[in-house]
Amino acid sequence: MQVDVRCEGTMPLGHYLRKYAGISAQMIKRLKAVPDGITRDGQHLRTVDPVGSGDVILLHLPESCGHTPNPMLHVPVIYESAQILVCDKPAGMPVHPSMLHREDTLANWFAAHETESGFHLVNRLDKNTSGLCLIAKTAYAAHCLRGGVQKQYFALVRPGLQGSGTIDAPIARERESVITRCVRSDGRPAVTHYRVLKETTHCTLLALTLDTGRTHQIRVHMAYIGYPLLGDELYGGDCTNIKRHALHCGSLTLTDPASRETITLHAPLRAEMQALLDERE
User: Fold this and answer.
1) Dist CA 24 CA 58 (whole Å)
2) Hey, what domains does the chain have and what are their CATH numbers?
């Protein structure tokens, strides 16, 4: 990772990294433990050494994905730079390996795509949610992106919902379930904003943004107001015409930690969701 120093006068490197580059004390400690973790002009640099405007500091923290690579998996890459990768995850693919999915996950695909990078998932999608997934290749990039990514989701519900609205209802885990969530007064705060984009005879297309990031938040909130996602069997959605919950992360806005450029990325609806919108009587 390259840090371009911009400051008046000089100051100790450690102070600059913490105050102006946003690097945590824990990460600085890890960088100091690596022989070439912090360098300037190819020379090792200590955190007490002075730096000034115009200095270019290179931070290097060796990382590995840690998952079994599976080169047979295919995931479209929407954007990639030295620090991050954004892909369009298909529905049906989990993001992390588990007992039932050991080598068919997004992590297994990434391990084959990036052999010498870490796998830091910035926005996690459920197995059957499709769309944009942001992966940081380094812990530093993940730290820079935390809390600074704007996401927009698209979902299909039954006809009838009009206009726009906000759902402000706390979400908790169902007492007898490991997976299922519900709206309950003792839950964690959760806020979802929705807007109707299109209505057909068969379904309504919604755009949704979140102020919080609770597990199953969109699915729980839409079921709570009487409009569960189509295909969402877990929360009472109609599965007649689609066999997975109709939810897609279609837009991300972020600042690339390397270039500092703010970018907005898009991924079109998956075919099964688009087909429902296009279906005629």
Assistant:
1) 16
2) 2-59 (no CATH), 151-248 (3.30.2350.10)
Residue 156 DSSP SS3: strand
Distance CA 247, CA 27 (A): 36
Better-predicted residue by pLDDT, 12 or 229: 229
Nearest to 256 by CA among 45, 105, 83, 1: 83
**What Å distances lie between residue 74 and 59, 71, 113, 117, 270, CA to CA?**
32, 8, 10, 18, 15
Catalytic residues, by residue number, are: 126
pLDDT tens-digit profile of 29-73? 878 877 788 888 888 889 898 888 888 888 877 677 778 999 999
**pLDDT in the model for residue 62:** 67
184 CB-side CA count, 13 A: 9
pLDDT at residue 63, as a whole number: 72
Candidates 141, 146, 149; CA nearest to 1 is 141
Q: How far apart are CA 243 and CA 227, in angstroms?
A: 17
CA-closest candidate to residue 220, choices 174, 251, 159: 174
CA separation for the pair 142, 118 (Å, rounded) = 10
The pLDDT of residue 31 = 81
Q: What is the pLDDT of residues 200-218, one digit of tens each?
A: 999 999 999 999 999 999 9
E strand or H helix at 13? helix 13-19
* pLDDT above 70 coverage of the chain, percent: 99
- CA dihedral (138, 100, 244, 167) positive or negative: negative
